[in-house]
Design brief:
about 200 residues, alpha+beta, three-stranded antiparallel beta sheet, 4 helices
């Protein structure tokens, strides 16, 4: 079973796939080794890296966890010398860092969910994102559960979002906030057929 889908969107063609390939090679992992960790076929992983398939939210986070790097490293920074440059060597905490509007590409995933990194560079132990769920979109197209290390807190900016976590179901609306340990199974879905949902996420590792 695959939770990736074919796409040819403007942000999809190879952007995230090429970044994942660079990260895999930096870890000195073969396609087969990483695919075995993920429980998917090497051909499916190859298609993701080549930009022919887009992962879901769940699959992307699973890949980053298997690589042992934060989700923030999946983003390309257009201000970098090239799209396959590794993450900055200088800690962004050591000096003032600014990311101008439009210099960090968003990530469009298979279910239509868009992730936008809100920090100029990856920050050790902390991740800050905005995610946009189109009408009816979910964290996984198959309704699969996600679990990973760390704690998450979210703040709704617009729309409604259903958060299921460890047997509980909560409906978040604009202005609501939520926090939970990410190790427990959880998933998200936008219940609206007409409105997108926007939420800010802070993840602490």
């Amino acid at each position: 079973m695959s939770d990736a889908s074919a796409t040819d969107g403007p942000h999809a063609l190879g952007q995230i796939g090429s970044r994942l390939r660079v990260l895999r090679r930096q870890q000195e992992l073969s396609l087969r080794e990483l695919s075995e960790r993920l429980g998917i076929s090497p051909s499916a992983l190859s298609q993701i890296e080549n930009g022919r398939l887009q992962p879901s939210v769940n699959r992307l986070i699973s890949i980053m966890n298997a690589l042992g790097v934060p989700l923030a490293f999946a983003f390309n920074d257009q201000s970098a010398p090239d799209a396959e440059s590794p993450a900055p060597a200088v800690s962004p905490i050591a000096e003032l860092s600014v990311a101008r509007a439009g210099t960090i590409d968003p990530i469009d995933l298979s279910t239509g969910v868009r992730y936008i990194r809100l920090t100029p560079h990856p920050i050790p132990g902390i991740e800050l994102f905005e995610s946009v769920y189109p009408p009816g979109a979910a964290s996984s197209p198959e309704g699969e559960w996600l679990s990973h290390q760390g704690f998450e807190t979210g703040h709704m900016r617009a729309g409604r979002l259903v958060v299921e976590h460890d047997g509980r179901r909560m409906v978040l609306e604009r202005g609501d906030s939520v926090s939970f340990p990410a190790r427990a199974p959880h998933r998200l879905v936008n219940p609206s057929a007409t409105r997108s949902a926007t939420i800010l996420w802070l993840t602490i590792h």
